[in-house]
Design a protein that fits this description.
By secondary structure, the chain is mainly β. It has 1 helix and 10 strands; from the N terminus they run βββαβββββββ. Strand 5 and strand 6 form a beta hairpin.
């Protein structure tokens, strides 16, 4: 069974930075992870989950307009890990952040809380 474990969240002041990690594990994963388009999502209180960024198997990236120029998604296929570098954080970035495939095929993990506040 494939599992997602997100980490790296925390409390940060506006303008600060955080780097999130998502380790994808599972017995068959090593065969397929490099083929998947992976994504980061977030869900703020009272709002629906939204797509933040994704990275294809060819390492092409795409971002929501709200984070473009501030966030960077990357991947390390050897470690089955996806990263999200978040810079110039704003209070509106406060949310629980999740990773998954671009089509949300894997059971969702617990996510990691990011709180941007002074």
């Amino acid at each position: 069974q494939v599992q997602l474990v997100e980490s790296g969240g925390g409390l940060v002041q506006p303008g600060g930075s955080l780097k999130l990690s998502c380790v994808v594990s599972g017995s068959v994963l090593r065969l397929y992870f490099a083929l998947w388009s992976m994504a980061w999502y977030r869900q703020a209180p009272g709002k629906q989950r939204e797509l933040v960024a994704h990275i294809t198997n060819g390492a092409n990236t795409n971002y929501a307009d709200s984070v473009k120029g501030r966030f960077t998604i990357s991947r390390d296929n050897a470690k089955n890990t996806v990263y999200l570098q978040m810079n110039t954080l704003k209070p509106e970035d406060t949310a629980v952040y999740y990773c998954n495939t671009l089509t949300g095929d894997i059971n969702w993990g617990q996510g990691t809380q990011v709180t941007v506040s002074s």
